[in-house]
Amino acid sequence: MALLKDEVSEVKYKTFFQPVIPAFANNDLLILTTPDAFSQEQITPMIPLIRNCISVAIGKELDVKVELPDSSLTLDMIHQHSSSTPPVTSESSVSQLNSAYTFDSFIVGAGNRFAHAACVSVADGGKQYNPIFLYGGSGLGKTHLMHAVGNAVKAKMPTKKVVYVNCERFVNEFIATIQSGKYDDFREKYRNADFLLIDDIQFLERKEQTQVEFFHTFNELYESGKMILMTCDKPPQSLSSLEERLRSRFSSGLIVDIQPADYETRIAILNRRMQDEHINLSDDIVDYIASNFASNIRELDGAFKTVVAYCFLANSFTLDDAKIALKDMIAPKQAKQVTPDIIVEVVARAYNITVNDIMSNKRSKDIIVPRQICMFLCRSELNMTYPKIGEFFGGKDHSTVLHACNKIELELKDSNSETSIRIDSIKKRLFN
Length: 432
Description:
Helices cover 54% and strands 9% of the residues. The chain contains 21 helices and eight strands. The model is unreliable at 82-95 (pLDDT under 50).
């Protein structure tokens, strides 16, 4: 990749090429993996240039493929290579860890704070919670935390055997083991681990023989006091096609739900991205990205990269440029649906306080007024009943909600009042 620095702009290199990881290579083929589909789209047209740089560097031409880490081609080639070579040891499994995924590069927020603390404890050698089962939607940081554990253990306890594997690869390796009959090699790899980090455990569903093998692997590691960390897209009890004995074991340790990042965390993530890439976007652009990409961090990263690439090409960094860059990513069907949570989040930002402040029982004026505005908007814009609003705000009496709504409605009669101006601004953020 070093030769590419002279062939592409610094921004393009740092944004798209620096995160690339060589996943597989032989005498004829090099597979490069990118962290997301958008980066893959940006790099694929550059394959001829990459081939040329490789030819200059090693004096040999290779076929180059740009893939996602979990693509069928990537997994198949790694599997074929591993099945025709000596067994993969735990040490080589450590090398599959992404060195960019560390605790230092992980942004901690309300939705992932507990998961982060649990993983830090594991990396420090704590075994009071074993196994640890992290679950949540795609792109919320589960894989990042798992790699961070592996990288921290590698740095602090280099003699420990760390095995990281995606569950789909675990299944494919076991299928190859059945075909070859080399069960001892397979079991030596996984049952001698001090730390087994297995990603996307939901791929075990409907794989009966693999479930049996994993059951015995799990038991042997657990009874030997070895650490098991798993990630999944749903809680153990929702893995309906998994054997009950496995579900019960997955539930026997610490189960941690990772929630989508709140607004403040998304802003912090974007600020970190700008710091790492030495890029400065205006506050209104950062706010626009954070407000429209709330479901997962991968989408947030993709939006950030899209805006940066477009603005550099256009040599203009305005909010209008960002909106044009993201117009195809913010489709009408993706338009955010206003909910009570979103109202509280937007009002909190408008008043420079936290969501926790509004949802608390604090009685200071700087908190009461925003809370009353939230209640008013839940009534006027979402048509919620007074009891429902009171329930949402921690069990407030419906008369308290009624008083808040009447008070704000009275203040709105003066269109030039501070409250009227604030609410107009808040509504624009909510519905535009």
